[in-house]
Amino acid sequence: MQNLIEIKGVSHAYQTKAGPLPVLNGLDVSVPEGAFCAVVGPSGCGKSTLTRLVAGLMKPDQGEVWLHGQKVTSPRKTVGMAFQNPVLLEWRSILENVMLPLEIVAPGMAKSDREARATHLLEMVGLKGFEGKRPSELSGGMRQRASLCRAIVHKPDVLIMDEPFGALDNFTREDLWQTMRDLRAAEPFTCVLITHDLRESVFLGDQVIVLSGRPAKTQYVLDVTLPADRKIDILYTPEATEMLHVLRDQIRIAQGRDGH
Ligand code: ADP
Ligand code: MG
After folding, report:
1. Which CATH architecture has domain 1-76+159-164+191-260?
2. Is it the case that residue 239 has pLDDT exceeding 90?
3. Is the pLDDT of residue 2 over 90?
4. What is the number of the ligand 1 atom nearest to the C-alpha of 43?
5. How far does residue 8's CA lie from ligand 1's centre (Å)?
6. Which of 79, 109, 157, 248 is deepest in the core (most CB within 10 A)?
7. What pTM did the predictor assign?
8. Closest CA to 189 of 157, 160, 151, 150
9. Where are the domains of the chain?
10. Which of 177, 158, 184 is nearest to 80 (CA)?
11. With 80 as the cut, is the pLDDT of residue 202 above it?
C-alpha cells in the first residue's frame, strides 16, 4: 500500500521573545492510504503543530512532508480539517454550512448536486431533519457531527482532526466515535486524529503514534490489531485492555514519569 502521508525528519522551532522554542525534533510518520492514524502525546509536545504542517499551513525548518506523492509547500484544498470547537457560520443553515467547501473547491458543481451530497452526509450522521437549523439551535455533539460532514463533503485526501471530541461529555463522545466508524465504512478516507483519549485512539485507530515530550519525535507506534468491524464493547476485551496498558506506559515515559 502506498503511504498517503510521509513525514520525514521534520524539525521545527517557533521563534519566541525568549528565543527559539524547539517543538518537533526529527519527526517521522507514515500513514498508508485509507488508514486511520491516531496521534497521542504529552500536552504542548507539538501535536497541533504537526496538523498545520500536514495541511501546508506552515513550513518546517527541516525535513519534508509528502501528501499523495507530492511535497507539501503550500495550503492544501485536499485536506479536510476538524477542531475541538466546530467553526460553523451562524448566518448559514446547517445544510449551507456543510455545502460551503464544495462552493470553494467545486464551484462548477450544480447547486442541486451540492445539496444532495450535503443532505446525504447529514443523514448518515443522524442529522436528518436539522438541515434548515442554525448552528446555535443544535447541541454541541450535533454541531460536531455537522462539522465532520463539512470536513469530508468535498472528499479530501485526508481528514485531519485536532481533538475534535475533547469538549463533549463521555456518552456523546462514544456516539461520535461510532458515527466516525460508520462514516468511514460507508466512504473510506484517510484520517489523522490528534487526541488525548487513549480509548478513543484504540477504538478509532489502525495505528496509534505516541509522540515524545517536546521537542517531539515518534516514540512508539502501536498497530491496533482489532477487527475492522468494532463496536464500543470491544474496548473491554483483553486485547484492547492490553493495548491501553501499553499506551499508558508509553505516555508516562513520554512525560518523563516512568518508574515514579
Ligand atoms: P500540542 O498541540 O501538542 O499541545 P502545540 O503544537 O500546540 O502542542 O504547541 C507546541 C508548543 O509550541 C507549545 O509549547 C506552544 O506553546 C508552542 N507554540 C505553538 N504555536 C506557537 C506559535 N505560533 N508561536 C510560538 N510558540 C508556539
Ligand atoms: Mg493542540
Report:
1. 3-Layer(aba) Sandwich (3.40)
2. yes
3. no
4. 4
5. 20
6. 79
7. 0.95
8. 157
9. 1-76+159-164+191-260, 77-156
10. 158
11. yes
